[in-house]
User: Fold these one by one.
Assistant:
Number 1:
Amino acid sequence: MKVLILFIAWLVLFVLCWPLALIALVALPLVWLLSIPFRVLGYVVEGLLAFLKALFFLPAKILR
């Protein structure tokens, strides 16, 4: 459903301003490729925070 909405929005943009739509069509894969390291970094930080949370709450779980 999300892809369909994105496609319809691109078609509307293509009708209104075709050069901008073609630039968006070329730029989208490049932006996606540039965002991969940041997503990986986000997963690493999320895992690290979950590990620290589990480490800090470990004494409470043991005493319970």
Number 2:
Amino acid sequence: MAHYAFLNSESIVVEVIVGVDEDTDGIDWEQHYGNFRGQTCKRTSYNTIGNEHLSGGTAYRGNFASIGYTYDETNDVFIPPKPADNYTLNTNTWLWEENE
């Protein structure tokens, strides 16, 4: 089972679904779901947080996508919403860190 995030026109995640594994039937499932919905769709890994895979595997797209996260196409990562103005994005973990 794989997870997929649907994005609005500003690349903000508006929904995350459970879908077909990406290797099933040789189909590009991001493209398939995106075409079906008429939205951009990106696969996301439930096991990736802070640009690390929880089971020691390969991290995928920085963080598991949730509603309100931004998809950064340049870096191919999901970034959580900025908690407050005094936070800076750590581009190693793709998480926000409070400035001191």
